[in-house]
Amino acid sequence: MDRLPEQTIARLPVYLRCLSQARSIGMRVINSLGIAQMAGTNAAQVRKDLSYLGELGTRGVGYDVGSLAEHISDVLGLETSRRVAIVGFGRLGRALVMYPGFDEHGFDFVAAFDADPARVRALPGGRSIDVRSIDNLETDLVKLRVEIVLLTTPAQVAQEMALRVAAGGVHAILNFAPVVLELPADVKVRPVDLASELQVLSFHLARMT
Amino acid sequence: MDRLPEQTIARLPVYLRCLSQARSIGMRVINSLGIAQMAGTNAAQVRKDLSYLGELGTRGVGYDVGSLAEHISDVLGLETSRRVAIVGFGRLGRALVMYPGFDEHGFDFVAAFDADPARVRALPGGRSIDVRSIDNLETDLVKLRVEIVLLTTPAQVAQEMALRVAAGGVHAILNFAPVVLELPADVKVRPVDLASELQVLSFHLARMT
Questions:
Q1: Contacting residues for A70 by C-beta, under 8 A, at least 6 apart
Q2: Which residues, at least 6 apart from A186, have a Cβ–Cβ distance to it below 8 Å?
Q3: Which B-chain residues 190-209 have CB contacts (< 8 A) with chain A?
Q4: How many CB atoms lie within 10 A of CB A109?
Q5: Chain A from 74 to 93: CB within 8 A of any B CB
Q6: Whether A14 and B92 lie within 8 Å, measured CB to CB
């Protein structure tokens, strides 16, 4: 399992979502082509990705939707819910807390940290979250047993905050700051760089005209 | 230029940001190792990526920071600003409009579309944006000459809205809905799938313990 390519790991959540959709319309068996069509890829890719997880399908029949979903869910470690904190509770941070996709997948927001916790007004929809000062970030992260941090601070302080997050025992960061973070090897970072995404789209637009 | 690998295209905005940072501290020449260290990659990768753009550096010296930045900027089509609209103006959409990284890079929000435009209250910070009903989405997108759409609708309507966006002459979509969109080949989609990103982090956490 440790030799799973990064690209394969990144596609597993997509397959899981497809299987869940297939189940919701009553499908009990699905083949690689069916998954591929839902996932926007090709059947060979699906078979290759899933082959890393062991012998799962039946030749000529396909995969059992329920047990494949369960297996992927196990591989992704989704059987237990994960404790998540947001560091930098500005507009983006507050929008992310409200994003329904996190809840649905067993990610629990246990706290938000901000340099100025007083400026945070009530969240919409009657939701509440424990907003704390960043003064005791490291010890609070340990106390709250936070496993994943969404980093939404301004770019200038992102590296410093990321080091403090790592010092708080957190091994997984989703980084929204447009900065490449330098962290110990046992901290996994996934960047979500929105301006870069638009620049990639711009590249394609420039080629079209 | 049309044979640039997707992975290379995705790294060009990162290199551009590194060059801008290097320039801001007074550097006029930089070598591949310097760029690699800032970008969190290795020198061979940087040289390979940049080799697609032509003969740019001087062996034993490095790259001219200013002209390399300008060249990458040209390749990414950033010399002209791009007209952007948001389709689905809920909390995430409103947070994205306020995200400073877009403005800085020459992306102009010209309109937002929502099924219920009346529910949109004023934006913070005295900003305003033209909020329109989705009833005339296709014709409005054409009229406003929108080039890029940020799709932040609920998942259930994302595919339908994406087809209407494509019918409005838009060839580039940044898709925040957790759905794989099926669109004509001349529409480029970049997915930003936040729940999947957390699931990838969860995979790594599960391997660590």
A1: none
A2: A171, B208
A3: 190, 192-208
A4: 21
A5: 75-78, 82, 84, 91-92
A6: no
> What ipTM does this complex have?
0.86
Strands A63-64 and A29-30 turn out to be: antiparallel
Classified as helix, coil or strand, B156 is helix
Residues 41-70 of B with CB under 8 A from A: none
Gap between the Cα atoms of B130 and B109, Å rounded: 9
What is the token pair recorded at B40?
A: 């969190």
B/e letters for A7-30, b = 16+ CB within 10 Å, e = fewer, are: ebbbbbbbbbbbbeebeeeeeeeb
Q: How many CB atoms lie within 10 A of CB A73?
A: 20
Q: Are B194 and A96 in contact (CB under 8 A)?
A: yes
Q: Do the chains contact at B208 and A190, CB–CB below 8 Å?
A: no
**What is the pLDDT, as a whole number, of residue A101?**
73
Domains of chain B: 6-75 (1.10.10.10), 82-196 (3.40.50.720)
Residues in chain B: 209
Structure tokens that stand for B192 in this block = 């930003």
Look at residues B124, B125, B123, B171 and name the one whose alpha carbon lies nearest to residue B148: B171
Say if the Cβ atoms of A200 and B207 lie within 8 Å.
no
Phi and psi at residue B146, in whole multiples of 5°? -75, 135
* Interatomic CA distance for residues B153 and B115, integer angstroms: 9
Of B193, B194, B205, which is closest to A82 when you measure between CB atoms?
B205
Per residue in A124-181, pLDDT (tens digit) is 666 788 999 999 999 999 999 999 999 999 989 999 999 999 999 999 999 999 889 9
What residues of A are in contact with residue B76 (Cβ under 8 Å)? 199-200, 202-203, 206
Distance CA A190, CA A172 (A): 8
